[in-house]
């Protein structure tokens, strides 16, 4: 197919597809989900280059009967800010996408507790570029030193690296030291302000 035929076959605008091909714009998650739904593209392959390019989407019954080789991972319409924080408004998943359980286990995640969300901002560069797709494991809420987590702090959602101090206080730090982002420090008096959403186990971003 040429570009126009391909765009029509997946229901997107020809100009939009051209922008993606030239690198003028980065594909959003709805476009990636469309590729999977309409063309059976294996998102594991798309993100990592591993596995087969195409998959055969299973029915709900096949999912139950296949010893759960695939898991439907929800995506949430909340952006974890790698910056100053955004208010978490929408808490219901907007879509679900099938991923191989092995892929998530190999990342160190618990497949039944993983979900998708996006980040925004530059405070976690170079680890997490702006507009990165995150896979978060909500079962990992015990904070380990040096790992990256999604935190709820008051009315904001942040993605930060955890740093335990010798005095027992927890710091939420940014990888982008050039940006001079402030360090959030939590002790026993502020612990009720902090909730651990989960650990970031995968970062996908536009090239």
Automatic annotation (TrEMBL):
One Pfam family in the UniProt entry: Phage_CI_repr
Protein name: Phage repressor protein C with HTH and peptisase S24 domain
PROSITE patterns linked: HTH_CROC1 (PS50943)
InterPro entries in UniProt: Cro/C1-type_HTH, Lambda_DNA-bd_dom_sf, LexA-like, LexA/Signal_pep-like_sf, Peptidase_S24_S26A/B/C, Phage_CI_N
Source organism superkingdom: Bacteria
Keyword Lipid metabolism: no
Residue ranges constituting the HTH cro/C1-type domain according to the UniProt record: 4-46
Native organism: Rhizobium paknamense
UniProt keyword annotations, A-Z: DNA-binding, Transcription, Transcription regulation
SUPFAM superfamilies: lambda repressor-like DNA-binding domains, LexA/Signal peptidase
């Amino acid at each position: 197919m040429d570009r126009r035929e391909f765009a029509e076959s997946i229901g997107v605008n020809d100009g939009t597809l051209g922008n993606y091909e030239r690198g003028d714009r980065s594909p959003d998650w709805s476009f990636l989900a469309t590729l999977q739904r309409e063309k059976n593209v294996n998102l594991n392959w798309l993100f990592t280059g591993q596995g087969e390019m195409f998959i055969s989407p299973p029915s709900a019954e096949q999912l139950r009967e296949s010893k759960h080789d695939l898991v439907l991972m929800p995506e949430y319409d909340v952006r974890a800010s790698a910056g100053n924080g955004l208010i978490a408004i929408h808490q219901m998943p907007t879509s679900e996408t099938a991923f191989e359980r092995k892929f998530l286990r190999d990342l160190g995640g618990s497949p039944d507790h993983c979900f998708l969300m996006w980040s925004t901002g530059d405070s976690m560069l170079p680890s997490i570029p702006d507009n990165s797709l995150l896979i978060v494991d909500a079962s990992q809420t015990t904070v380990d030193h040096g790992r990256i987590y999604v935190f709820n702090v008051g009315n904001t959602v942040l993605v930060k690296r955890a740093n335990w101090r010798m005095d027992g206080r927890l710091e939420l730090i940014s990888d982008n030291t050039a940006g001079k982002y402030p360090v959030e420090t939590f002790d026993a008096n502020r612990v009720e302000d902090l909730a651990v959403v989960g650990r970031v186990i995968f970062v996908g971003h536009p090239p």
